[in-house]
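thought: fold this chain, then report.
action: predict
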Amino acid sequence: MRRKFLVLLETLVILAGLSLGFAAWKVHSALDQTLNVAQEELLDVPSGSTPTGTFNRMQAKGTLRDAFWLRVYWRFNLAGQPLHSGEYRLTPGMTLKDLLGVWQRGEVVQYSLTLVEGWNFRQVRAALDKQEKLKHTLAGLSDAELMTRLGHEGVFPEGRFFPDTYKYVRGMTDAELLVQAYNRLDEVLAKEWTDRAQDVPYTEPYQALIMASLVEKETGVPQERAEIAGVFVRRLAAGMLLQTDPTVIYGMGERYTGKLSRADLHEATPYNTYTNAGLPPTPIAMVGREAIHAALNPASGTSLYFVARGDGSHVFSDDLEAHNNAVREFQLKRRADYRSSPAPIPQPAAAPGQEPAVEPPAASPDTATDSNADAPHESEKDSQ
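observation:
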């Protein structure tokens, strides 16, 4: 009896060894297999996906074989490894081991969206809507409802998001991206506010943000931002109206068609700095760090006026007579290629797997304080 038991036990051990050897061979074979991918394609792993479900789905599609043995391998070797949601790039010649390495490192395909300095919030929402890889959760909401969804009820959205290039993966929501941009603006504004000049005329960071939006819309020339801010600050100190066309344009909203008339400059809107003293009630555009820094560190000087040359830069004047001369030279005889701000810089080509960055809109030739031939020039504005 004892002999029979030992023989049975030996047989079971041999069978177990053979089974383990067979399993090891099957797992090794499954891991060494080359994926059945004829050309580059993307594997979508939605949120909540499991390795088991993903292996089964890939086998059903014919991308791999032996999904059972791959599940066994994951269970005993990678049980604590999360499977990050998103898209993974599959390429010809890729093995299952390569894919597991990509999964372990979480190398999901990333896309990018560029929010551009000077954009208003309507343009931001339009850019978000065009991102096919984002999960859209804000469509149909009013601006107020959108801000409530982001956790900032009662906050006006204009100018509250930082212009930058943001990376995202498939399945990320538009709300998550906007939260990043909102928090980034808060960080930059807080840092610049801490480092502000001592004599700036603002009682809170939001006022500086409003001023920065005026600077952003008036010039794209880096060295001019602080000087533009200086003009506005001195005009405020002297009790002068700011009289900057971008505020009028913003107040007109979608009615603005590219030109301002005398009637537009007298239209009663909360943003019209020809009829309202001080800063407008809110920012009028997104602003970059440079514009915020300029608003909080305006250049010293005596100039109270500026006029666009037509190449994107401006001529600054201390008095009305000098300004009138500049207006006659640069405004009454416009060049055919006149611009009130520099030409937009072409966006770089998108990297493989990335959506192209959103192109900034071409600068309008009629968006500077003094750029409209059919509107009163600055000299006439101040004499009214």
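thought: worth noting. The chain has two domains: 34-108, 113-383.
final: tokens above.
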